[in-house]
Amino acid sequence: MRSWLSLFKKELRTKLFTILVSILLISGWEIFLMTKMEVWPLGLSFALGFLPLTIFPLIMLIQGYQSFRKEWNNHTIYLLKSLPRKGYEVVSSKLVSSTLIYIVLTLYTLGLHMFFHWYQVKYLLRDVPPAVANNYSNQMAVIAVLIYLAAGVVPYVLSQFSYLVSCFFSKFRWLVSIVVFILSHYLLLRLGGLVARLFNWMPDIPLDAMWAGAGGEQSVTIYLGSGPIIAALIIIIGFFFTGAWILEKQLDV
């Protein structure tokens, strides 16, 4: 555990500049939107405040590709490979550090945005019945958080795996990475459908949706299949450990 923590701390140190720049950009963007609240139509500045959240998953994808590319370009891969560390320790330290930053920047963005636009939030939600608001915040928010977390972690794992595969080639690594990245998504979808059948016996996940209509408050229960979720999780874990195996056992530097 101590050896893994040393790798984890090393990854955080290498990302300090990225964290500081991201915080400055997010703060500048929110301050700019705050100055436009009284100028732009109601709700526009509030909606634009979520724009950074659409960029963070893309940054995770780029970080996944760059995680080992930087090691090769800076020639630090020789030191990394010489350490008595398992492949999954090295790969997981990079994944966990990037995911932690992803979560922290997301929370910082949401917290700062809600702080500046709190009165707009209350105004926009003034006609929403308490029962609907409570149901949405309790269930839909949890699902939204899980989906957003997956939107960052999955591209990271697949792009990191794609680059490790491209290291078997001396030329056109970027092209190989793109092809492998596309094929890995295709495999995730196709193989996921097959693996999901093995978990048809698993109970579906109920999700209660409520809304306020002309006839008052209405509700419906939506059932999400747990099989595809479990299958996707297994396949992503498979990509993760395959990449770790490639790094530890197959790649020579």
Written description of the protein model:
This protein is mainly α and 253 residues long. Helices cover 75% and strands 7% of the residues. A two-stranded antiparallel sheet has the order 1-2. Helix 2 (16-35) packs parallel to helix 6 and helix 8 packs across helix 9 (173-196). The two termini are 26 Å apart.
Quick take:
This protein is mainly alpha-helical and 253 residues long. It has helices at 2-14, 16-35, 44-48, 51-73, 77-82, 87-116, 118-124, 130-166, 173-196, 226-250, and strands at residues 205-213, 216-224.
> How many strand units?
2
The whole-number mean of residue pLDDT values reads 83
How would the global form be characterised? globular
Oligomer: single chain
The helix tally amounts to 10
Structural class: mainly alpha
Which blocks of ≥5 consecutive residues have pLDDT under 50?
none
Biggest β-sheet strands, sense, barrel:
2 strands, antiparallel
Give the N-to-C terminal Cα separation.
26 Å
Strand content: 5-15%
H-E string? HHHHHHHHHEEH
Q: Please list the strands of the largest sheet in the order they lie side by side.
A: 1-2
Backbone CA Rg: 22 Å
User: How helical, in percent, are the residues?
Assistant: over 70%
